Amino acid sequence: MTVSVSETELHVRALQRRMPFHFGGVEATAGPQMLVGVTARINGETASGQSMGALAPMWFYKDPSMSLETGIAAMIDVFSTAASVAERTTGQTVFAFWQSLYNGVQSWATGRSYPPLLWRFGVSLLEQAVIDAYCRRMETPFPTAVHENDLGIDLGAIYDELAGIEPTTLLPDAPVRSTAIRHTVGLSDPLDDDDLTPDERLEDGRPQTLAEYVRTDGVTHFKIKLAATDADAQRLGRIHAVLESSPIDEYVVTLDANEGYSSARAFKRQYRALSVDPASSPLLDRVKYVEQPLARDESFTDETASTFADWDDRPAVIIDESDDSLTSVQHALDIGYDGTSHKNCKGVFNGIANRCLLAHRRRRDGGEYVMSGEDLTTLGPIEREQDLAVMATLGMDHVERNGHHYYRGLSAFGDSTQQAALSGHPDLYRRHEQGFVTLNVQSGSIQLDSVLAAPFGRTVTVASDQCTPVDSWNVDSIVHADD
Prior knowledge:
Layout: E1 3-23, E2 26-42, E3 45-54, H1 58-61, H2 68-86, E4 90-91, H3 94-109, H4 116-138, H5 142-147, H6 167-170, E5 178-185, H7 210-217, E6 221-225, H8 232-244, E7 252-256, H9 264-276, H10 281-284, E8 287-291, H11 302-309, E9 317-319, H12 328-335, E10 339-342, H13 348-365, E11 370-373, H14 383-394, E12 398-400, H15 403-406, H16 415-424, E13 429-431, E14 437-439, E15 445-447, H17 449-453, E16 468-469, E17 479-481
Parallel strand pairs: 5-6, 5-12, 6-7, 7-8, 8-9, 9-10, 10-11
Antiparallel strand pairs: 1-2, 1-4, 1-16, 2-3, 2-17, 5-15, 13-14
Helix pairs in contact: 2-3, 2-4, 3-4
């Protein structure tokens, strides 16, 4: 087999948010989404593929002084370069194509100021589009392509200890066919009606407060953001009170510190304080893991390793932003972390290798290793479906779903796109009582049968004429300075 890309297209579509997003001195009322299209050659035959991702630089940079315009310009530069490299890349398998693409973009990024997570996102968008083209050309669902290794995945090319092992040996025997929504509770998100003024109430048919999400969607899994300050104790206590007074009997909690702690010692000190504080301790009893507590440059220090080794009652801790190289997870496990997150923006093949590494270590030494399913605000009708196809294959029985909180279903797309999504995924979507198509959350979970049957998850193609060519798009159209 030979795999190559003869043409790429980059377009932007700005989707209106339910609520504005504040970043530094800028208020963004729309979320720009990059649409990537490829024309691939699979064994000499033409195939088209698409992928989609948010132009949201904040997670990659974590620099509040950076303007949104500067961050988005960097992302567009990375995506354009990845597309250009893809047009010069050939591989004997889809995996081999990805390896060459990764190496080419990495070589270009060396010496530039772009964070590895950012240029890897560029690689991943092209990786996803080529996987999509392959699955559509072969008319094969993603889990089948992975388990039969039609994609040519070589685990040993990433982790030496997995050399000669097929992915199907270490992955779950079958993909999960439903997954629980793990609802994000952001630092400024309203918990109940007391947190909203009449002017802030949206009245747009979707839940707005944590209490409303529990009542309306029946969610039982929650990802709670930590401020990494003393204010966390009272806020966690308020969240516990909301959940305890809700209709649900049992629930699961994970915490995300988003690099908030300056050192492992500082994290240990505050976590122990939270564990004995009467306000926060009841909620901490339900915590399954803490995600990325430390700043990237502190994650793998000798102090971190020694602090983890001496902390007997430590919660499970996983990396997220620190997972910025192909072998970061191996390094993290050796230091004492318990696992990592998966997001497609960090790479599909790398995520599969990470999942297999954790399974291999679990079989080898019996450790309790964790891979979580996280969400860089994925939206339908392309990105969410491809993300869920991977999550299901990795066996994620609960997945953070953050994007649907900030957007009113698929209402930012036209009626024909919404109907196509509903027709192609009648289990994943439903028509809301107010007419728009939205995620179909029942008792806190979503069904994935249609995602698993479709080539790389999606049934909908977004026409490029619904978007703006990237060279013609201006970020000024979605932002204005705060008053």
